[in-house]
Amino acid sequence: MAGTQPIDPLSRAATPPIADGGHAAPGRVVQRAGYQVGAPVAFGANHAAEWSRWMPGLRMLLRYEAAWLGHDVVAGLVLATMLVPVGIAYAVASGLPGICGLYATIIPLLVYAVFGPSRILVLGPDSALAAVILGVVLPLSGGDPQRAIALGGMMALVSGTVLTLAGLARLGFVTELLSKPIRYGYMNGIALTVLISQLPKLFGFSVESTGPLRDLWAIGGAVLAGRANWVALAIGVGTLATILLLRGRRWIPGILVAVVGATVLVGLFDLAGRNGVSVLGSLPQGLPRFAIPWIGVGDVVPVLVGGCAVAMVSFADTSVLSRAYAARTHTTVDPNQEMTGLGAANLAAGFFQGFPISSSSSRTPVAEAAGSRTQVTGVVGALAIALLLLVAPDLLRHLPTSALAAVVIASAIGLFEVSDLRRIYQIQRWEFWLSITCFAGVAVFGAIPGIGLAIIIAIIEFLWDGWRPYSAVLGHPAGVEGYHDVTRYPEASRIPGLVLFRWDAPLFFANAELFRERVLAAVRESPTPVRAVVVAAAPVTSVDVTAADALTELDEALLEQGIELRFAELKDPVKDKLRRFGLFDRFGEARFSPTIDAAISRYQGTP
Questions:
Q1: pTM of whole model > 0.90?
Q2: Domain end residue (candidates: 438, 462, 486)
Q3: Which of 303, 307, 354, 579 is the most buried (most CB within 10 A)?
Q4: Of 406, 429, 462, which closes a domain?
Q5: pLDDT value at position 370?
Q6: Same-domain check for residues 324 and 389
Q7: How many domains does one find in the chain?
Protein backbone atom coordinates (compact mmCIF):
# COMPACT_ATOMS: atom_id res chain seq x y z
CA MET A 1 0.00 0.00 0.00
CA ALA A 2 1.40 3.34 -1.01
CA GLY A 3 2.60 5.41 1.90
CA THR A 4 2.47 2.52 4.40
CA GLN A 5 5.46 2.03 6.68
CA PRO A 6 6.89 -1.51 6.71
CA ILE A 7 6.43 -3.39 9.98
CA ASP A 8 9.50 -4.76 11.70
CA PRO A 9 8.83 -8.52 12.01
CA LEU A 10 10.84 -8.70 15.20
CA SER A 11 9.23 -5.90 17.15
CA ARG A 12 5.86 -5.65 15.38
CA ALA A 13 6.34 -1.90 15.53
CA ALA A 14 6.46 0.61 12.73
CA THR A 15 10.03 1.28 11.66
CA PRO A 16 11.61 3.36 8.91
CA PRO A 17 12.13 1.53 5.62
CA ILE A 18 15.35 -0.45 5.36
CA ALA A 19 17.86 1.45 3.27
CA ASP A 20 17.65 0.82 -0.45
CA GLY A 21 14.86 -1.64 -0.75
CA GLY A 22 14.30 -3.29 2.61
CA HIS A 23 10.54 -3.40 2.23
CA ALA A 24 8.64 -6.63 2.76
CA ALA A 25 8.14 -6.52 -0.99
CA PRO A 26 8.74 -3.82 -3.54
CA GLY A 27 5.99 -1.31 -2.86
CA ARG A 28 3.93 -3.37 -0.39
CA VAL A 29 3.83 -4.91 3.08
CA VAL A 30 2.71 -8.49 3.70
CA GLN A 31 0.56 -8.89 6.81
CA ARG A 32 -1.92 -11.40 8.17
CA ALA A 33 -4.27 -10.67 11.04
CA GLY A 34 -2.21 -7.64 12.02
CA TYR A 35 1.12 -9.53 12.21
CA GLN A 36 4.03 -9.57 9.80
CA VAL A 37 4.45 -12.94 8.10
CA GLY A 38 7.17 -14.93 9.82
CA ALA A 39 7.17 -12.79 12.97
CA PRO A 40 8.81 -14.69 15.84
CA VAL A 41 7.34 -14.65 19.31
CA ALA A 42 10.29 -15.74 21.42
CA PHE A 43 12.42 -12.59 21.41
CA GLY A 44 12.03 -9.37 23.34
CA ALA A 45 11.21 -6.49 21.07
CA ASN A 46 14.05 -4.23 22.21
CA HIS A 47 16.73 -6.93 22.00
CA ALA A 48 15.58 -8.14 18.61
CA ALA A 49 15.31 -4.66 17.15
CA GLU A 50 18.85 -3.87 18.31
CA TRP A 51 20.58 -6.79 16.62
CA SER A 52 18.36 -6.61 13.53
CA ARG A 53 19.36 -2.98 13.06
CA TRP A 54 22.96 -4.07 12.51
CA MET A 55 22.04 -7.15 10.45
CA PRO A 56 19.37 -5.94 8.02
CA GLY A 57 19.97 -8.94 5.75
CA LEU A 58 18.62 -11.29 8.41
CA ARG A 59 15.63 -9.02 8.90
CA MET A 60 14.98 -9.29 5.16
CA LEU A 61 15.15 -13.09 5.30
CA LEU A 62 12.50 -13.17 8.02
CA ARG A 63 10.02 -11.64 5.61
CA TYR A 64 11.32 -13.35 2.48
CA GLU A 65 8.64 -14.55 0.07
CA ALA A 66 8.86 -17.81 -1.84
CA ALA A 67 7.87 -16.04 -5.04
CA TRP A 68 11.14 -14.12 -5.00
CA LEU A 69 13.39 -17.21 -4.91
CA GLY A 70 13.17 -18.05 -8.60
CA HIS A 71 14.08 -14.50 -9.59
CA ASP A 72 16.99 -14.39 -7.15
CA VAL A 73 18.41 -17.77 -8.26
CA VAL A 74 18.31 -16.90 -11.96
CA ALA A 75 19.79 -13.45 -11.32
CA GLY A 76 22.52 -15.00 -9.16
CA LEU A 77 23.55 -17.48 -11.85
CA VAL A 78 23.59 -14.74 -14.50
CA LEU A 79 25.62 -12.54 -12.16
CA ALA A 80 28.15 -15.33 -11.52
CA THR A 81 29.03 -15.49 -15.22
CA MET A 82 30.20 -11.89 -14.96
CA LEU A 83 31.71 -12.07 -11.48
CA VAL A 84 34.29 -14.70 -12.44
CA PRO A 85 36.14 -12.96 -15.29
CA VAL A 86 35.80 -9.52 -13.72
CA GLY A 87 37.03 -10.68 -10.31
CA ILE A 88 40.08 -12.35 -11.86
CA ALA A 89 40.79 -9.33 -14.06
CA TYR A 90 40.68 -6.84 -11.18
CA ALA A 91 42.88 -9.04 -9.01
CA VAL A 92 45.55 -9.17 -11.72
CA ALA A 93 45.16 -5.41 -12.25
CA SER A 94 45.73 -4.93 -8.51
CA GLY A 95 48.98 -6.89 -8.55
CA LEU A 96 47.59 -10.08 -6.96
CA PRO A 97 47.03 -13.64 -8.25
CA GLY A 98 43.79 -14.05 -10.18
CA ILE A 99 42.32 -16.49 -7.65
CA CYS A 100 42.28 -13.71 -5.04
CA GLY A 101 39.68 -11.92 -7.14
CA LEU A 102 37.32 -14.87 -6.72
CA TYR A 103 38.04 -15.12 -2.99
CA ALA A 104 37.37 -11.36 -2.71
CA THR A 105 34.03 -11.97 -4.43
CA ILE A 106 32.71 -15.04 -2.61
CA ILE A 107 33.23 -13.99 1.02
CA PRO A 108 32.20 -10.29 0.76
CA LEU A 109 28.97 -11.19 -1.05
CA LEU A 110 28.02 -13.58 1.76
CA VAL A 111 28.93 -11.10 4.51
CA TYR A 112 27.20 -8.14 2.85
CA ALA A 113 24.04 -10.23 2.49
CA VAL A 114 23.89 -10.19 6.32
CA PHE A 115 25.26 -6.74 7.23
CA GLY A 116 24.50 -4.68 4.13
CA PRO A 117 21.35 -2.54 4.00
CA SER A 118 20.94 -2.53 0.21
CA ARG A 119 18.57 -5.01 -1.40
CA ILE A 120 20.30 -4.84 -4.79
CA LEU A 121 23.93 -3.72 -4.39
CA VAL A 122 26.66 -6.13 -5.62
CA LEU A 123 30.07 -5.97 -3.92
CA GLY A 124 33.43 -7.23 -5.11
CA PRO A 125 36.77 -6.19 -6.62
CA ASP A 126 36.47 -2.89 -8.45
CA SER A 127 38.46 -1.06 -11.09
CA ALA A 128 38.29 2.20 -9.12
CA LEU A 129 40.37 0.57 -6.37
CA ALA A 130 42.80 -1.30 -8.62
CA ALA A 131 45.20 1.61 -9.10
CA VAL A 132 45.28 2.36 -5.37
CA ILE A 133 45.92 -1.28 -4.42
CA LEU A 134 48.51 -1.72 -7.17
CA GLY A 135 50.32 1.42 -6.01
CA VAL A 136 50.89 -0.23 -2.62
CA VAL A 137 51.23 -3.91 -3.52
CA LEU A 138 53.53 -3.72 -6.55
CA PRO A 139 56.49 -1.84 -5.04
CA LEU A 140 56.32 -3.67 -1.70
CA SER A 141 55.79 -7.24 -2.93
CA GLY A 142 58.67 -7.32 -5.40
CA GLY A 143 56.71 -9.78 -7.55
CA ASP A 144 56.27 -12.33 -4.72
CA PRO A 145 52.64 -13.53 -4.98
CA GLN A 146 52.44 -14.64 -1.35
CA ARG A 147 53.64 -11.28 -0.12
CA ALA A 148 51.23 -9.58 -2.50
CA ILE A 149 48.36 -11.60 -1.01
CA ALA A 150 49.39 -10.58 2.52
CA LEU A 151 49.65 -6.91 1.55
CA GLY A 152 46.28 -6.95 -0.21
CA GLY A 153 44.67 -8.73 2.74
CA MET A 154 46.06 -6.25 5.26
CA MET A 155 44.86 -3.33 3.14
CA ALA A 156 41.39 -4.89 3.24
CA LEU A 157 41.61 -5.19 7.04
CA VAL A 158 42.66 -1.54 7.37
CA SER A 159 39.89 -0.42 5.03
CA GLY A 160 37.33 -2.62 6.80
CA THR A 161 38.34 -1.38 10.23
CA VAL A 162 38.16 2.28 9.18
CA LEU A 163 34.76 1.80 7.53
CA THR A 164 33.29 -0.21 10.40
CA LEU A 165 34.44 2.21 13.10
CA ALA A 166 33.26 5.19 11.04
CA GLY A 167 29.87 3.53 10.54
CA LEU A 168 29.48 2.75 14.24
CA ALA A 169 30.48 6.34 15.03
CA ARG A 170 27.85 7.53 12.53
CA LEU A 171 30.36 9.34 10.34
CA GLY A 172 28.62 8.44 7.11
CA PHE A 173 28.32 12.12 6.25
CA VAL A 174 32.08 12.58 5.70
CA THR A 175 31.96 11.73 1.99
CA GLU A 176 29.71 14.75 1.53
CA LEU A 177 32.92 16.78 1.82
CA LEU A 178 33.87 15.49 -1.64
CA SER A 179 32.02 17.72 -4.07
CA LYS A 180 30.94 16.43 -7.47
CA PRO A 181 33.75 18.18 -9.40
CA ILE A 182 36.34 16.75 -7.02
CA ARG A 183 34.85 13.24 -7.32
CA TYR A 184 34.90 13.57 -11.09
CA GLY A 185 38.51 14.72 -11.00
CA TYR A 186 39.92 11.87 -8.96
CA MET A 187 37.76 9.24 -10.66
CA ASN A 188 38.91 10.46 -14.10
CA GLY A 189 42.48 10.33 -12.83
CA ILE A 190 42.03 6.82 -11.46
CA ALA A 191 40.39 5.73 -14.74
CA LEU A 192 43.42 6.99 -16.69
CA THR A 193 45.81 5.32 -14.23
CA VAL A 194 43.99 1.99 -14.49
CA LEU A 195 43.91 2.20 -18.28
CA ILE A 196 47.65 2.92 -18.52
CA SER A 197 48.47 0.14 -16.05
CA GLN A 198 46.74 -2.42 -18.31
CA LEU A 199 48.39 -1.40 -21.58
CA PRO A 200 51.53 -3.56 -21.03
CA LYS A 201 49.35 -6.67 -20.46
CA LEU A 202 47.36 -5.78 -23.57
CA PHE A 203 50.60 -5.67 -25.61
CA GLY A 204 51.93 -8.85 -24.00
CA PHE A 205 54.89 -7.49 -22.03
CA SER A 206 55.60 -5.90 -18.63
CA VAL A 207 57.23 -2.67 -17.46
CA GLU A 208 58.32 -1.46 -14.06
CA SER A 209 55.72 1.00 -12.79
CA THR A 210 57.09 4.43 -11.84
CA GLY A 211 53.94 6.54 -12.20
CA PRO A 212 51.16 6.82 -14.80
CA LEU A 213 52.76 9.31 -17.20
CA ARG A 214 56.26 7.81 -16.90
CA ASP A 215 54.75 4.37 -17.44
CA LEU A 216 53.18 5.63 -20.67
CA TRP A 217 56.62 6.73 -21.85
CA ALA A 218 58.09 3.32 -20.96
CA ILE A 219 55.26 1.50 -22.78
CA GLY A 220 55.91 3.53 -25.93
CA GLY A 221 59.62 2.70 -25.71
CA ALA A 222 58.91 -1.02 -25.29
CA VAL A 223 56.61 -1.07 -28.32
CA LEU A 224 59.20 0.73 -30.46
CA ALA A 225 61.83 -1.75 -29.25
CA GLY A 226 59.78 -4.62 -30.67
CA ARG A 227 58.69 -6.22 -27.38
CA ALA A 228 54.98 -6.28 -28.23
CA ASN A 229 53.23 -9.63 -28.79
CA TRP A 230 50.93 -8.76 -31.68
CA VAL A 231 48.83 -11.90 -31.33
CA ALA A 232 48.13 -11.09 -27.68
CA LEU A 233 47.32 -7.51 -28.70
CA ALA A 234 44.89 -8.70 -31.37
CA ILE A 235 43.11 -10.90 -28.81
CA GLY A 236 42.96 -8.07 -26.31
CA VAL A 237 41.70 -5.51 -28.80
CA GLY A 238 39.11 -7.99 -30.09
CA THR A 239 37.94 -8.66 -26.53
CA LEU A 240 37.72 -4.93 -25.80
CA ALA A 241 35.80 -4.24 -29.02
CA THR A 242 33.32 -7.02 -28.25
CA ILE A 243 32.68 -5.72 -24.74
CA LEU A 244 32.17 -2.15 -25.95
CA LEU A 245 29.91 -3.20 -28.83
CA LEU A 246 27.69 -5.28 -26.56
CA ARG A 247 27.66 -2.78 -23.71
CA GLY A 248 24.18 -1.55 -22.88
CA ARG A 249 22.45 -4.67 -24.23
CA ARG A 250 21.05 -5.97 -21.00
CA TRP A 251 20.32 -9.54 -22.03
CA ILE A 252 23.66 -10.14 -23.79
CA PRO A 253 26.50 -10.55 -21.27
CA GLY A 254 29.18 -8.81 -23.31
CA ILE A 255 32.05 -9.53 -20.90
CA LEU A 256 31.16 -13.23 -20.74
CA VAL A 257 30.85 -13.53 -24.54
CA ALA A 258 34.17 -11.76 -25.09
CA VAL A 259 36.11 -13.68 -22.45
CA VAL A 260 34.73 -17.09 -23.46
CA GLY A 261 35.51 -16.33 -27.11
CA ALA A 262 39.10 -15.34 -26.31
CA THR A 263 39.61 -18.41 -24.09
CA VAL A 264 38.26 -20.81 -26.72
CA LEU A 265 40.40 -19.19 -29.39
CA VAL A 266 43.62 -19.50 -27.37
CA GLY A 267 42.89 -23.10 -26.35
CA LEU A 268 41.76 -24.25 -29.77
CA PHE A 269 44.81 -22.94 -31.64
CA ASP A 270 47.31 -23.38 -28.77
CA LEU A 271 48.29 -19.72 -29.01
CA ALA A 272 50.02 -19.89 -25.63
CA GLY A 273 52.49 -22.50 -26.89
CA ARG A 274 52.85 -21.35 -30.49
CA ASN A 275 52.78 -17.58 -30.12
CA GLY A 276 53.73 -17.01 -26.49
CA VAL A 277 50.36 -15.57 -25.46
CA SER A 278 50.29 -15.29 -21.67
CA VAL A 279 47.37 -17.17 -20.05
CA LEU A 280 45.85 -17.37 -16.57
CA GLY A 281 46.57 -21.08 -16.01
CA SER A 282 44.76 -23.43 -13.65
CA LEU A 283 43.18 -21.99 -10.54
CA PRO A 284 43.84 -23.60 -7.15
CA GLN A 285 41.14 -26.12 -6.28
CA GLY A 286 39.17 -25.42 -3.13
CA LEU A 287 37.66 -22.57 -1.17
CA PRO A 288 39.35 -19.63 0.53
CA ARG A 289 40.72 -20.40 3.97
CA PHE A 290 41.05 -18.21 7.04
CA ALA A 291 44.51 -16.64 7.31
CA ILE A 292 45.96 -13.61 9.07
CA PRO A 293 47.82 -11.46 6.51
CA TRP A 294 51.12 -10.79 8.26
CA ILE A 295 53.26 -7.98 6.82
CA GLY A 296 56.65 -6.52 7.69
CA VAL A 297 57.18 -3.48 9.90
CA GLY A 298 58.44 -1.49 6.92
CA ASP A 299 55.17 -2.10 5.10
CA VAL A 300 52.92 -0.71 7.84
CA VAL A 301 52.84 2.97 6.85
CA PRO A 302 52.13 2.52 3.11
CA VAL A 303 49.52 -0.15 3.87
CA LEU A 304 47.80 2.13 6.41
CA VAL A 305 47.78 5.06 3.98
CA GLY A 306 46.59 2.85 1.13
CA GLY A 307 43.91 1.20 3.26
CA CYS A 308 42.52 4.56 4.36
CA ALA A 309 42.54 5.83 0.76
CA VAL A 310 40.69 2.70 -0.35
CA ALA A 311 38.13 3.17 2.42
CA MET A 312 37.45 6.74 1.29
CA VAL A 313 37.12 5.85 -2.39
CA SER A 314 35.06 2.69 -1.84
CA PHE A 315 32.57 4.36 0.47
CA ALA A 316 32.25 7.43 -1.76
CA ASP A 317 31.42 5.17 -4.71
CA THR A 318 29.15 2.89 -2.68
CA SER A 319 27.21 5.75 -1.13
CA VAL A 320 26.60 7.35 -4.54
CA LEU A 321 25.48 4.04 -6.08
CA SER A 322 23.35 3.15 -3.06
CA ARG A 323 21.62 6.54 -3.14
CA ALA A 324 20.96 6.17 -6.87
CA TYR A 325 19.22 2.81 -6.45
CA ALA A 326 17.37 3.99 -3.36
CA ALA A 327 15.96 6.86 -5.42
CA ARG A 328 14.82 4.41 -8.09
CA THR A 329 13.08 2.19 -5.51
CA HIS A 330 11.67 5.15 -3.54
CA THR A 331 13.39 4.12 -0.31
CA THR A 332 15.88 5.77 2.04
CA VAL A 333 19.58 5.18 2.57
CA ASP A 334 21.32 4.86 5.92
CA PRO A 335 24.93 5.84 5.08
CA ASN A 336 26.18 4.67 8.47
CA GLN A 337 24.79 1.16 8.00
CA GLU A 338 26.10 1.17 4.43
CA MET A 339 29.53 2.02 5.77
CA THR A 340 29.28 -0.73 8.42
CA GLY A 341 28.17 -3.34 5.87
CA LEU A 342 30.97 -2.38 3.49
CA GLY A 343 33.45 -2.47 6.37
CA ALA A 344 32.33 -5.96 7.46
CA ALA A 345 32.70 -7.21 3.87
CA ASN A 346 36.24 -5.79 3.65
CA LEU A 347 37.23 -7.33 6.99
CA ALA A 348 36.00 -10.72 5.80
CA ALA A 349 37.91 -10.33 2.51
CA GLY A 350 41.10 -9.53 4.42
CA PHE A 351 40.89 -12.66 6.57
CA PHE A 352 40.08 -14.96 3.64
CA GLN A 353 42.91 -14.21 1.16
CA GLY A 354 41.09 -11.37 -0.56
CA PHE A 355 41.81 -7.67 -0.98
CA PRO A 356 39.82 -4.41 -0.68
CA ILE A 357 36.43 -4.40 -2.38
CA SER A 358 33.68 -1.93 -3.16
CA SER A 359 30.28 -1.80 -4.77
CA SER A 360 30.11 -2.22 -8.52
CA SER A 361 28.33 0.12 -10.91
CA SER A 362 28.71 -2.46 -13.70
CA ARG A 363 27.64 -5.69 -11.93
CA THR A 364 24.79 -4.20 -9.91
CA PRO A 365 22.80 -3.30 -13.07
CA VAL A 366 23.36 -6.88 -14.31
CA ALA A 367 21.72 -8.25 -11.17
CA GLU A 368 18.87 -5.79 -11.45
CA ALA A 369 18.27 -6.53 -15.15
CA ALA A 370 18.29 -10.28 -14.44
CA GLY A 371 15.41 -9.83 -11.99
CA SER A 372 17.13 -9.67 -8.60
CA ARG A 373 14.78 -9.13 -5.66
CA THR A 374 17.05 -9.36 -2.60
CA GLN A 375 20.59 -10.04 -1.34
CA VAL A 376 19.93 -13.75 -1.99
CA THR A 377 21.09 -12.96 -5.56
CA GLY A 378 24.60 -12.27 -4.26
CA VAL A 379 24.53 -15.42 -2.12
CA VAL A 380 23.63 -17.54 -5.16
CA GLY A 381 26.39 -15.87 -7.19
CA ALA A 382 28.94 -16.55 -4.45
CA LEU A 383 27.90 -20.21 -4.15
CA ALA A 384 28.12 -20.64 -7.93
CA ILE A 385 31.72 -19.36 -7.92
CA ALA A 386 32.57 -21.63 -5.00
CA LEU A 387 31.17 -24.60 -6.93
CA LEU A 388 33.36 -23.65 -9.90
CA LEU A 389 36.48 -23.72 -7.73
CA LEU A 390 35.55 -27.11 -6.27
CA VAL A 391 34.48 -28.85 -9.48
CA ALA A 392 36.16 -27.17 -12.46
CA PRO A 393 39.27 -25.15 -11.47
CA ASP A 394 40.86 -25.80 -14.91
CA LEU A 395 37.97 -24.28 -16.84
CA LEU A 396 39.74 -20.95 -17.31
CA ARG A 397 43.32 -22.14 -17.75
CA HIS A 398 43.47 -20.85 -21.35
CA LEU A 399 42.08 -17.40 -20.45
CA PRO A 400 44.58 -14.89 -21.97
CA THR A 401 45.83 -12.10 -19.73
CA SER A 402 45.40 -9.62 -22.60
CA ALA A 403 41.66 -10.41 -22.50
CA LEU A 404 41.65 -9.74 -18.74
CA ALA A 405 43.40 -6.43 -19.44
CA ALA A 406 40.66 -5.62 -21.95
CA VAL A 407 37.99 -6.27 -19.28
CA VAL A 408 39.67 -3.80 -16.92
CA ILE A 409 40.22 -1.22 -19.68
CA ALA A 410 36.55 -1.42 -20.65
CA SER A 411 35.60 -0.77 -17.05
CA ALA A 412 38.09 2.12 -16.79
CA ILE A 413 36.58 3.72 -19.89
CA GLY A 414 33.22 3.61 -18.13
CA LEU A 415 34.69 5.52 -15.18
CA PHE A 416 35.46 8.63 -17.23
CA GLU A 417 33.04 11.51 -16.76
CA VAL A 418 33.09 14.10 -19.55
CA SER A 419 29.56 15.27 -20.30
CA ASP A 420 28.78 16.59 -16.83
CA LEU A 421 32.18 18.29 -16.68
CA ARG A 422 31.17 20.23 -19.79
CA ARG A 423 28.09 21.42 -17.94
CA ILE A 424 30.19 22.42 -14.91
CA TYR A 425 32.59 24.30 -17.22
CA GLN A 426 29.69 26.33 -18.58
CA ILE A 427 28.07 27.21 -15.24
CA GLN A 428 30.99 27.37 -12.75
CA ARG A 429 34.40 27.69 -14.39
CA TRP A 430 36.48 27.57 -11.19
CA GLU A 431 34.93 24.24 -10.10
CA PHE A 432 35.80 22.78 -13.50
CA TRP A 433 39.46 23.73 -13.02
CA LEU A 434 39.29 22.33 -9.49
CA SER A 435 38.26 19.00 -11.05
CA ILE A 436 41.08 19.20 -13.59
CA THR A 437 43.57 19.84 -10.77
CA CYS A 438 42.44 16.69 -8.96
CA PHE A 439 42.64 14.76 -12.23
CA ALA A 440 46.18 15.99 -12.88
CA GLY A 441 47.22 15.13 -9.31
CA VAL A 442 46.21 11.49 -9.73
CA ALA A 443 47.60 11.26 -13.29
CA VAL A 444 50.99 12.76 -12.40
CA PHE A 445 51.64 11.55 -8.86
CA GLY A 446 49.65 8.30 -8.80
CA ALA A 447 46.41 7.19 -7.18
CA ILE A 448 47.23 7.52 -3.47
CA PRO A 449 49.00 10.94 -3.56
CA GLY A 450 46.35 12.15 -5.99
CA ILE A 451 43.51 11.12 -3.71
CA GLY A 452 45.30 12.80 -0.82
CA LEU A 453 45.50 15.96 -2.90
CA ALA A 454 41.78 15.67 -3.71
CA ILE A 455 40.92 15.42 0.00
CA ILE A 456 43.09 18.46 0.83
CA ILE A 457 41.44 20.45 -1.94
CA ALA A 458 38.02 19.31 -0.71
CA ILE A 459 38.79 20.59 2.80
CA ILE A 460 40.07 23.91 1.45
CA GLU A 461 36.97 24.23 -0.74
CA PHE A 462 34.78 23.44 2.27
CA LEU A 463 36.49 26.07 4.42
CA TRP A 464 36.78 28.78 1.76
CA ASP A 465 33.22 30.12 1.99
CA GLY A 466 33.64 30.51 5.74
CA TRP A 467 37.23 31.70 5.48
CA ARG A 468 36.50 34.53 3.04
CA PRO A 469 32.71 34.90 3.19
CA TYR A 470 30.46 37.39 1.51
CA SER A 471 29.48 40.48 3.47
CA ALA A 472 27.32 43.47 2.62
CA VAL A 473 26.21 46.91 3.74
CA LEU A 474 22.40 46.97 3.63
CA GLY A 475 19.90 49.57 2.54
CA HIS A 476 16.17 49.73 1.80
CA PRO A 477 15.37 49.78 -1.96
CA ALA A 478 12.17 51.55 -3.00
CA GLY A 479 9.40 49.08 -3.77
CA VAL A 480 11.33 46.08 -2.39
CA GLU A 481 10.56 44.53 0.96
CA GLY A 482 13.38 44.27 3.47
CA TYR A 483 17.01 45.40 3.50
CA HIS A 484 19.43 44.44 0.74
CA ASP A 485 23.02 44.78 -0.44
CA VAL A 486 23.66 48.37 -1.58
CA THR A 487 26.07 47.13 -4.27
CA ARG A 488 23.13 45.29 -5.87
CA TYR A 489 20.69 48.15 -5.18
CA PRO A 490 22.73 51.38 -5.45
CA GLU A 491 19.56 53.45 -5.15
CA ALA A 492 18.67 51.87 -1.78
CA SER A 493 18.11 54.41 0.99
CA ARG A 494 20.40 54.29 4.02
CA ILE A 495 19.59 55.61 7.47
CA PRO A 496 21.85 58.58 8.31
CA GLY A 497 24.39 57.73 11.01
CA LEU A 498 23.65 53.97 10.88
CA VAL A 499 25.59 51.20 9.10
CA LEU A 500 23.64 47.98 8.57
CA PHE A 501 26.26 45.27 8.03
CA ARG A 502 25.53 41.61 7.16
CA TRP A 503 28.11 38.83 7.62
CA ASP A 504 27.27 35.59 5.76
CA ALA A 505 29.20 33.00 7.78
CA PRO A 506 30.03 31.78 11.28
CA LEU A 507 32.60 33.89 13.09
CA PHE A 508 35.73 31.86 13.82
CA PHE A 509 39.48 32.19 14.01
CA ALA A 510 40.08 32.16 10.23
CA ASN A 511 37.77 35.06 9.40
CA ALA A 512 37.63 37.07 12.63
CA GLU A 513 40.22 39.65 11.52
CA LEU A 514 38.56 39.98 8.13
CA PHE A 515 35.22 40.65 9.85
CA ARG A 516 36.81 43.42 11.89
CA GLU A 517 38.47 44.97 8.81
CA ARG A 518 35.28 44.94 6.74
CA VAL A 519 33.18 46.55 9.48
CA LEU A 520 35.73 49.34 9.91
CA ALA A 521 35.89 49.76 6.11
CA ALA A 522 32.09 50.05 5.98
CA VAL A 523 32.27 52.79 8.64
CA ARG A 524 34.95 54.69 6.68
CA GLU A 525 32.96 54.46 3.43
CA SER A 526 29.65 55.59 4.96
CA PRO A 527 28.25 58.69 3.20
CA THR A 528 27.30 60.22 6.60
CA PRO A 529 29.07 60.31 9.99
CA VAL A 530 28.36 57.02 11.76
CA ARG A 531 26.91 56.78 15.27
CA ALA A 532 26.04 53.06 15.33
CA VAL A 533 26.80 49.80 13.50
CA VAL A 534 24.15 47.07 13.50
CA VAL A 535 25.39 43.62 12.49
CA ALA A 536 22.60 41.64 10.81
CA ALA A 537 23.74 38.41 12.40
CA ALA A 538 21.18 35.82 11.22
CA PRO A 539 23.83 33.94 9.15
CA VAL A 540 26.26 33.85 12.11
CA THR A 541 25.77 30.34 13.50
CA SER A 542 28.78 30.19 15.82
CA VAL A 543 31.47 32.25 17.51
CA ASP A 544 34.78 30.95 18.85
CA VAL A 545 37.25 32.47 21.34
CA THR A 546 39.38 34.16 18.66
CA ALA A 547 36.30 35.75 17.12
CA ALA A 548 35.05 36.85 20.55
CA ASP A 549 38.34 38.64 21.19
CA ALA A 550 38.10 40.25 17.75
CA LEU A 551 34.61 41.52 18.64
CA THR A 552 36.02 43.06 21.81
CA GLU A 553 38.78 44.79 19.83
CA LEU A 554 36.25 45.99 17.25
CA ASP A 555 33.98 47.36 19.96
CA GLU A 556 36.86 49.25 21.52
CA ALA A 557 37.94 50.67 18.16
CA LEU A 558 34.40 51.84 17.39
CA LEU A 559 33.82 53.33 20.85
CA GLU A 560 36.96 55.45 20.39
CA GLN A 561 35.18 57.00 17.39
CA GLY A 562 31.92 57.42 19.33
CA ILE A 563 30.25 54.53 17.51
CA GLU A 564 28.21 51.81 19.23
CA LEU A 565 28.31 48.19 17.99
CA ARG A 566 24.91 46.46 18.01
CA PHE A 567 23.45 43.15 16.81
CA ALA A 568 20.17 42.08 15.22
CA GLU A 569 18.73 38.58 14.68
CA LEU A 570 21.51 36.89 16.63
CA LYS A 571 20.54 33.28 17.40
CA ASP A 572 20.08 32.21 21.03
CA PRO A 573 22.82 29.49 20.92
CA VAL A 574 25.28 32.14 19.73
CA LYS A 575 24.11 34.48 22.50
CA ASP A 576 24.78 31.67 24.97
CA LYS A 577 28.37 31.52 23.74
CA LEU A 578 28.73 35.27 24.12
CA ARG A 579 27.52 34.93 27.71
CA ARG A 580 30.18 32.30 28.41
CA PHE A 581 32.83 34.56 26.86
CA GLY A 582 31.64 37.53 28.96
CA LEU A 583 30.68 39.59 25.91
CA PHE A 584 26.96 39.66 26.56
CA ASP A 585 27.52 41.46 29.86
CA ARG A 586 30.04 43.80 28.21
CA PHE A 587 27.59 44.86 25.48
CA GLY A 588 24.43 44.76 27.57
CA GLU A 589 20.94 43.58 26.64
CA ALA A 590 20.08 46.86 24.91
CA ARG A 591 22.57 46.22 22.11
CA PHE A 592 20.72 43.06 20.94
CA SER A 593 17.51 43.26 18.92
CA PRO A 594 15.36 40.37 17.66
CA THR A 595 14.95 41.89 14.15
CA ILE A 596 16.58 44.49 11.93
CA ASP A 597 13.43 46.64 12.12
CA ALA A 598 13.57 46.52 15.92
CA ALA A 599 17.25 47.53 15.84
CA ILE A 600 16.46 50.49 13.56
CA SER A 601 13.53 51.57 15.76
CA ARG A 602 15.76 51.42 18.81
CA TYR A 603 18.44 53.47 17.04
CA GLN A 604 15.87 56.08 15.99
CA GLY A 605 14.46 56.18 19.50
CA THR A 606 10.99 55.04 18.45
CA PRO A 607 9.12 52.33 20.41
A1: no
A2: 462
A3: 354
A4: 462
A5: 66
A6: yes
A7: 2
